[in-house]
Specification:
Elements (H helix, E strand, L loop, with lengths): L2 H4 L1 H4 L2 H4 L14 H25 L6 H12 L7 H22 L3 H5 L8 H27 L7 H14 L5 H21 L6 E7 L4 E7 L2 H10 L1 H26 L7 H31 L1 H20 L14 H23 L8 H32 L7 H20 L7 H39 L3 H30 L19 H15 L4 H24 L6 H9 L2 H24 L8 H36 L13 H24 L3
Antiparallel strand pairs: 1-2
Membrane topology: Multi-pass membrane protein
InterPro entries: Oligopep_transpt, OPT, YSL-like
GO molecular function: oligopeptide transmembrane transporter activity
């Protein structure tokens, strides 16, 4: 019998009123099998989310899939326990978080043509430094934020339920995840590999003075991601789609004239690239700043609480802590943070700033020193915001883009002020050096920011199950190390196979399969535009106006109707291509339809029916997570033959003359996928 089963009689009461494993009970947590399984899942989930992050600019939390997979494997060991599952889950989730922090920003150097490939060791060091800071920043925040009972940590509670299922040896969860993964992988294989199906379907018509039409995205991974994020984000994306594509493309084509292209489909894409996405940039810029303003008071409160706790520790007023309250000693945290500043300085001074840049050594060191301090101070502020957001709305829905854009704008504006003293510099030199250093610094902050957001959720899971915090933090650091070494080759593999952000490693590659990298494209656009003064301020101004209107509507909806219109999602709907945004909308609408059906099947609010409704929701979440993981992993697997053959058509079996049927067949398959998800989720157990 397992150690967890032995504890059932002792922990049954604590399931509702305290941790599952009490503080006075010690069970094995960091074991050899935990480390081996954690390393494997970290690599796998990092690879899956690298593809998804570059494709659509978002990642899906790996915590629940990692917990379920760990649960399914560790149950074969008789002496396994729930705390081991927790350690595997927290390490594996780092792979997804660090991938997001790097993949959202670092490709901007490819897009700006500063890099022609992902430099391995520079990317590794960046991941180690940024991820390490992210873990360190959350240690002094942990107690303050977890004691704030206004923060619900929705995803952490869900993970806690999954781990409870592990303790009770519940079946069915792993089956849902596995079946979803198989379905997602098969559809992705026929779409991207064999190309019997397509992941996009465009239909645009040319009139006398304009074009109009629409497009569909049919990616199973993005449909499942939409199912997870829900109806509010989906409808906000739909608002952006309507403003940017359905209304924006015809109006701007009529105003600016027809783009020089052969087909209406190509004209629509050209209009989006030259005008529409800048409207999205403006919307996301203002949305990011607004998000920062609304969180100013919670951030100050959180930081004040954290520093008060640190002061008590320094003065020795803290009582001896129990096992479930022991962090890595705070003086170790401070020493480690100071030590990390040294390699960060050298990283910026001698690798991020080009060695052949014609600047004085003094100014090089000044810029590097300021950037290092900004990473420390500004990074802690923004990481505090993201850690707070993990408790407020969950890590998946946290506005990472808003925080990154805000951090980038601040450092760009400061650099512009610094560069006014360099009168001998040309504007091109200011643009090049400023963009590179700003984005290079932002990569470190972005890695720390993503880690802090995910880490706070995982630390809450530890509180629920009764894990030892310092052991969780050790596993987080180990996850950062493993992820940092595997992310660079994954990014390079994907770049070689698909191209990123309009930049291709080889000529004659298929633009339809390019990884859009919208977040990195946004960062490149903001940085370059800030220094070159060439941003399309008219389009950005329109986007800013849309953001203001969206913010007003969001506040009204929030106060009067208890729902939301997230402004950053509206901006993302304008900014993304249709094949990336529409499937998320489809998934969100599907989730709403299923929830509406559940409300009709069961008496809403009845305590007796709540477990049944929860079981349906839980099954749907696991199924969607499986589809995302399966389809995303297939994208990474297919990148291998594509890179070897140097062609994304390496496995194609659909003849050219039958390609129009691929779109029709894909629409049918997408409908059947949604119908299958609907049926499986609503199936009674």
């Amino acid at each position: 019998m397992s150690a967890t089963n032995n504890m059932k009689g002792k922990t049954g009461e604590s399931n509702n009123h305290g941790p599952i494993i009490p503080a006075d009970v010690s069970l094995p947590e960091i074991t050899l099998r935990v480390i081996v399984l954690g390393v494997i899942l970290t690599v796998v989930l990092a690879a899956a989310n690298a593809y998804l992050g570059l494709k659509v600019g978002t990642t899906v939390s790996a915590s629940i899939p990692a917990a379920v997979i760990s649960m399914g494997i560790l149950r074969f060991f008789k002496n396994s326990n729930i705390l081991e599952n927790t350690m595997v889950q927290i390490m594996a989730s780092v792979g997804e978080a660090l991938t997001a922090g790097i993949a959202f920003i670092l490709p901007a150097l490819i897009i700006l043509h500063v890099w022609d490939k992902f430099n391995y060791w520079q990317t590794v060091v960046t991941g180690l430094l940024g991820g390490g800071l992210g873990v360190l920043f959350t240690i002094p925040l942990r107690r303050a934020l977890l004691q704030d009972r206004t923060l619900r940590y929705p995803e952490a509670v869900a993970i806690g339920n999954v781990l409870k299922a592990s303790a009770n040896r519940e079946k069915g969860d792993l089956n849902s995840l596995t079946v979803g993964g198989i379905v997602g992988a098969v559809i992705a294989l026929f779409q991207t590999g064999f190309q019997v199906l397509t992941d996009s379907f465009q239909y645009w018509v040319r009139a006398e003075t304009t074009i109009f039409g629409f497009g569909l995205g049919l990616s199973p991974a993005l449909i499942a991601a939409g199912y997870i994020v829900g109806i509010n984000v989906a409808l906000s994306l739909l608002v952006g789609i309507v403003l940017g594509w359905i209304a924006g493309v015809p109006v701007l084509t009529w105003y600016y004239g027809m783009p020089d292209a052969e087909t209406a489909n190509q004209m629509a894409i050209m209009m989006w690239r030259s005008h529409i996405r800048y409207i999205g940039v403006g919307t996301m810029l203002i949305g990011g700043l607004w998000t920062l303003c609304t969180l100013f008071k919670p951030v100050i409160t959180s930081m004040a609480t954290s520093f008060a706790t640190l002061r008590e520790i320094r003065l020795g007023n803290r009582k001896a802590s129990v096992r479930t309250e022991r962090d890595i000693p705070i003086h170790y945290v401070f020493i480690a943070a100071i030590i990390l500043l040294v390699p960060i300085f050298f990283l910026i001074a001698f690798t991020i700033i080009p060695q052949d840049a014609p600047i004085s050594s003094g100014f090089r060191y000044f810029i590097s020193g300021f950037s290092t301090l900004y990473i420390l101070i500004g990074g802690f502020v923004f990481c505090s915001v993201m850690a707070y957001f993990a408790g407020l709305i969950g890590s998946t829905n946290s506005p990472v883009s808003g925080m990154l854009v805000s951090a980038l704008l601040v450092i760009c504006l400061i650099f512009i002020a610094f560069f006014t003293t360099q009168t001998e510099w040309s504007e091109e030199m200011k643009e090049m050096i400023g963009s590179v250093v700003a984005i290079g610094s932002l990569v470190v902050i972005g890695a720390a920011l993503a880690i802090s957001n995910d880490t706070m959720q995982d630390l809450k899971v530890g509180e629920i199950v009764g894990a030892t915090p310092w052991k969780q933090q050790v596993m987080l650091i180990l996850g950062v190390v493993v992820s940092s070494f595997v992310i660079p080759p994954i990014l390079q593999l994907l770049y070689n196979a698909y191209g990123i952000g309009g930049v291709f490693p080889r000529p004659d590659m298929n633009p339809a399969q390019m990884l859009a990298a919208p977040q990195a494209g946004l960062m490149a656009t903001v940085a370059k535009g800030a220094f070159s003064h060439q941003l399309q301020w008219g389009m950005i101004g329109i986007g800013a106006f849309i953001a203001v209107v969206s913010i007003v509507i969001d506040e009204i909806l929030k106060k009067r109707f208890g729902t939301r219109l997230p402004v950053l999602a509206v901006g993302l709907g304008i900014y993304l291509p249709l094949d990336s945004s529409v499937p998320v909308v489809i998934g969100g609408i599907l989730a709403y339809i299923i929830q509406a059906r559940l409300n009709r099947l069961y008496h809403r609010g009845e305590p007796a029916d709540e477990p049944k409704v929860h079981a349906h929701r839980h099954r749907g979440l696991l199924l969607a997570c499986g589809i995302v993981a399966g389809a995303s992993l297939m994208g990474v697997i297919l990148a291998i033959p594509f890179a070897i053959q140097q062609s994304s058509d390496a496995l194609r079996i659909m003849p050219d003359e039958y390609m129009p049927f691929a779109g029709i067949l894909s629409v049918i398959v997408t409908f059947l996928l949604c119908a299958w998800i609907y049926r499986v989720v609503l199936k009674k157990t």
